[in-house]
Design a protein that fits this description.
The chain is of the alpha/beta class. It has 11 helices and 7 strands. The strands form 2 sheets. Strands 2-3-4-1-5 form a 5-stranded parallel β-sheet, with helices on both faces. A two-stranded parallel sheet has the order 6-7. Bound molecules: adenosine-5'-triphosphate (ATP). The site of adenosine-5'-triphosphate has 19 residues, from helix 2, helix 7 and helix 9. Adenosine-5'-triphosphate binds next to helix 2, helix 7 and helix 9.
Length: 269
């Protein structure tokens, strides 16, 4: 089997506090997934959806959101990228899918996160592959999903930039039946929430500078762009400390001393 790449599923350490903005999506998840999950015992009729599909442009926090859902619902997290499961040998791709679900059941309560779901489940009507490998992969995925419908402790989340490419059979009730859109929100208020979430573990000289930085940012920045901005600011602050250490003006206690300044953010910007 070539599924050795799967890490042992565990609860991720991403919480709602690490997700900036996306308030509507969070509320929806809390109402339809978190609350029912936390209040459904295994014998009760299942009221939560089997799966959700997060869709939207790259870098808008789909992976981050999936991890936060797992954390907030106390579910182990098993992450696979669609293309990783595809294999040139006859029957191996289907076996990989079976193995992923097997592993998830062993680790239940568990969520399986299928990143790039479109590559795994392309619309069968659109491909010239009738009866071919992709056809069998989609069928296997449907069979596994249908097998999870009755289970309260296995849950699937898919992510894609191209929901239009996904086989509609995957989106029927009992499968990825709840679709949530994650977009780029260009309001300054949301941008500030994102930068605050990304820096919640930083030491910042003056948190008030974040508003001034956000006001200078392009409107179309995604969460991933803000992540790059904050990492660069942290690197800039770290470099400053390292130069001080090299000049004999500071000790080696880098973690205690890395304080990010407005200049660091400006340089990163
Ligand atoms: P892709 O479609 O390219 O896989 P994605 O939508 O899954 O992208 P993520 O991988 O979740 O995006 O985002 C990349 C990084 O950007 C995250 O690890 C996180 O650090 C940051 N990020 C994205 N959105 C947000 C957000 N709303 N709040 C805080 N950080 C965010």
């Amino acid at each position: 089997l070539n599924v050795n790449f799967i890490d042992a599923p565990k609860i991720p350490n991403v919480t709602w506090a690490d997700v900036g903005g996306l308030d509507d999506v969070k509320r929806d998840v809390i109402d339809t997934i978190q609350l029912p999950l936390n209040h459904t015992d295994n014998n009760a009729n299942k009221t939560t959806p089997t799966g959700i599909l997060l869709f939207g442009p790259p870098g808008t926090g789909k992976t981050l959101m999936a991890k936060a859902i797992a954390n907030e619902c106390s579910l182990n997290f098993l992450s696979v990228k669609g293309p990783e499961l595809l294999n040139m040998y006859v029957g191996q791709s289907e076996e990989n899918i079976r193995e992923v679900f097997r592993k998830a059941r062993q680790s239940s309560p568990c969520v399986i996160f299928f990143d790039e779901l479109d590559s795994l489940a392309p619309n069968r009507g659109r491909t010239a592959d009738s009866g071919g490998v992709m056809d069998r992969v989609v069928s296997q995925l449907l069979a596994e999903l249908d097998g999870t419908t009755k289970s309260t402790d296995l849950f699937v989340i898919g992510a894609t930039n191209r929901p239009d490419l996904i086989d509609p059979a995957l989106l029927r009730p009992g499968r990825f039946d709840k679709m949530l859109y994650l977009g780029v929100d260009s309001s300054r208020e949301t941008q500030l929430k994102i930068i605050n979430a990304l820096t919640n573990k930083f030491q910042i000289e003056d948190r008030g500078c974040l508003q001034r930085i956000v006001d200078k940012c392009p409107r179309q920045m995604t969460g991933a762009d803000f992540y790059a901005l904050c990492s660069d600011a942290l690197i800039s602050a770290t470099r400053r400390i390292i130069s001080k250490i090299e000049a004999g003006q500071a000790t080696l206690d880098v973690h205690a001393d890395v304080v990010v300044t407005e200049d660091d953010f400006n340089e990163a910007l």
